[in-house]
Amino acid sequence: MPSDLQGRTIAFLCAPEGTEQVELTEPWKAVEQAGGTPRLVSTQSGRLQAFDHLDKADTFPVDTTVDVSGHTEFDGLVLPGGVANPDFLRTEPKAVAFAKAFFDAGKPVAVICHGPWTLIEADVVRGRTMTSWPSLRTDLRNAGATWVDEEVKICEDGPNVLVSSRKPDDLKAFCQAAVEAFKR
Fold first, then answer.
1. 72-94 per-position pLDDT tens digit
2. Packed helices 21-33 and 171-183: angle between N→C axes, nearest 10 degrees
3. DJ-1/PfpI domain: from which residue to which, for each copy (predicted)?
């Protein structure tokens, strides 16, 4: 497995503040352990402030911004959760366009917890089957998705592979499924 993602670069799209740290760091490690290169993409340069639920956690250096980079530089996308993170991203047109471009290009996307809010705003969940933090169930259904309560859901009924999970407890399965999707 160490070279499964050799030569592949995976974008992690996060707001400047509010990302659930473990939903950033665990998939990041999984990509690195599989030989891939994770890159942190945000709406602002500098450092992003991650959170452990509602408490400030560590900060992380931003590699590039949605103003500078596009989907063509990446082989896949991870959208971590945290309530504030996707709520901010869905209000930023360039962040929404960045995420949507992965669907338009047929590239794999992995999303966890509250992360689907950004995808709802991008109008890319219609006809897809996915999971999320339970409070997004109605939002996803209203956006045309089929919501399921599963540890991880891999949906191939669309232009790309879409991997989704509910919460930090699902990270082991989420990371494994995301790496598999990014290998394709």
1. 999 999 999 999 999 999 999 99
2. 40
3. 9-180
pLDDT the model gives residue 3: 61
Can you tell me the distance from the alpha carbon of 147 to that of 5, in angstroms, rounded to the nearest whole number? 29
**Does residue 82 lie within any of the structural domains?**
yes
- 125: tokens are 């969940």
Which tokens is 136 given? 């997004």
Active site residue 114: yes
pTM as predicted: 0.97
State the catalytic residue, choosing from 14, 114, 155, 175: 114
Domain span at 63: 9-183
Per-residue pLDDT reduced to its tens digit, 135-146: 999 999 999 999
**Does residue 4 belong to any structural domain of this protein?**
no
Question: Would residue 71 show up in a list of annotated catalytic residues for this protein?
Answer: no
Find residue 165's DSSP bridge partners: 112, 152
The two counts, helices (H) then strands (E), for the chain are 6, 12
Given a cut of 70, the residues of the chain with pLDDT beneath it are 1-3
- Rounded-to-integer distance, Cα 116 and Cα 141, Å: 12
**Number of CB atoms found within 10 A of residue 157's CB:** 9
CATH number for the domain harbouring residue 43? 3.40.50.880
Q: Given 14, 53, 71, 113, which residue is catalytic?
A: 113
Instruction: Say how many residues make up the chain.
Output: 184
